Amino acid sequence: MKMAKIYIDPGHNCSGADTGAVGYGLKEQDVSVQIGVLLRELLLVSGQTVKMSRDSITDTVSSSLNGSLAYRYNGANDWDADIFVSIHCNAANSKAYGCETYYYTGSSKGRRLADCVQPELAKETGLCNRGVKSANFAVIKHTNMPAILVETAFIDNYDDNRFLASDDGKYKCAVGIYKGICDCLGIEYKLESEDKLMSREYEELNERLEKVENPMIYDYIDDNMPEWARPTITKLVDKGFLKGDEEGKLRITEDLMRLLVINDRAGVYGE
Question: Residue 198: what pLDDT?
């Protein structure tokens, strides 16, 4: 299996001078992390080595704009990454919509990576394909490896915003970027159950799982439940996000637990 070192940079911070765009109560710095964590999980399943500039919605890498940008490209350079992917949400005048991918002006390798990612992102999400563009953004200018900046959708456009706010939308963004990276690096997709999980809403997923013969169902937080899932499920029960049926049974599948744990790692459910 071909292996690569992939540096994922969820754009912006939760505080300081580089907090990103906001639309309809949705924050770019939160969405970029959530998509980034999902992308990391997909790449890890494929056997790749991944590092992130930040992996929590509470992370602030620097209080200054220049410091925040330098932390990201220096982190990728110091780690000697093979590729750099910065994840963002666009904003304009509330009328613009769709996804687009940027590479550093004059970088042929960056252009190739962008040419692989952009069509997969547009195809997977169904968003308007605004194409591949060049720019001199600091994080793709000062990196030593092929680098792209992905504008997943317009956070200030209502329809794009609702897409980004949904779990399904974030998953589709992650899967689209993942497939583009795989195409560029010649890596075989390793989606399988993860692909099915990412590309459907919870209701569709549960309908599919109900048709599987004898799926494993977890009713209680006990030794039968996978150890890796217990902290997240306990948190969601304590917060009242997960409630059992009349008999107190949670009725959770392992695929759904994976999804909940990924969200928890992204900081969706708080401390």
Answer: 46
185, 4 contact by CB (below 8 A): yes
Q: Where are the domains of the chain?
A: 5-185, 200-265
SS3 of residue 25 by DSSP: coil
Residue with tokens 């009713």: 219
* pLDDT(58) > 90: no
Mean pLDDT of all residues in 80-88: 98
- Please, what's the b/e burial string for 183-212 (b: 16 or more CB within 10 A of its CB; e: otherwise)? bbbebeebbeebbebbbbeeeebeeebeee
CATH 3.30.479.10 is the classification of domain 5-185:
no
d(CA 1, CA 72): 28
The set of residues, in sequence order, having a beta carbon less than 8 Å from that of 5 and lying 6+ positions away, is 48, 49, 50, 51, 79, 80, 81, 82
Structure tokens at 88: 């963002």
Q: Whole-model pTM?
A: 0.72
Q: Which residues contact 115 (CB under 8 A, 6 or more apart)?
A: 132
- pLDDT in the model for residue 197: 46
Q: Give the pLDDT band of residue 218 (cuts 50, 70, 90).
A: confident
